[in-house]
Amino acid sequence: MAKRQIFYSFHYDNDVFRVQQIRNIGALEENQPVSINDWEKVKQGGPRAIEQWIDSNLKGKSCLIVLIGTETYSRPWVKYEIEKAWRDGKGVLGVYIHNINCMKNGRCNQGLNPFEYTYTPGGVKLSGLVRTYNPAAGNAYSNIADNLEQWVETAINDR
User: Fold this and answer.
1) Which residues lie below 8 Å from residue 124, measured CB to CB, with a gap of 6+?
2) Structural domains of the chain, ranges and CATH numbers in brackets
3) What are 89-147's pLDDT values in tens digits?
4) Which one, of 61, 82, 85, lies nearest residue 4 by Cα?
5) What pTM value is reported for the model?
6) Where is each Thoeris protein ThsB TIR-like domain found (predicted)?
7) Are 49 and 106 contacting, i.e. CB atoms less than 8 angstroms apart?
8) Which residues in 34-51 are b (16+ Cβ under 10 Å) and which e?
9) By the 8 A CB rule, do 114 and 78 touch?
């Protein structure tokens, strides 16, 4: 199976170490996260620059994976990424990452479902349309590694 082009959406400050572990699984496109320095430059350009950066990086992707940490649901740019990917007809899914160990913070509390706070252009809550996966504490990394490719295919087929 060909590797899919993926855009990962997450709360950078809280979850970058967990996210990097998932990106290193390698089942999907190898794309590096933006560095903190690059992200700071994008943010200095203001909201329009951030939207343009997101739009540019979502272009050509088949699926958006929201990696759900403790505060992901409340992040305005995560919401923008979800709604943009949905409008563009991309596959969308969520994976809870609270059971992935972070070298800086350990494990975290499970966050709220961000799809409860995002809507289709017609006003339908995405939580009823988008699948989320919650790997168990004992084998979260293995569960994600073993299933992420299939979850992506399911999300794309759901669209």
Assistant:
1) none
2) 6-158 (3.40.50.450)
3) 999 999 999 988 777 777 788 999 999 999 999 999 999 999 999 998 889 999 999 99
4) 61
5) 0.88
6) 7-99
7) no
8) eeeeebeeeeeeeeeebe
9) yes
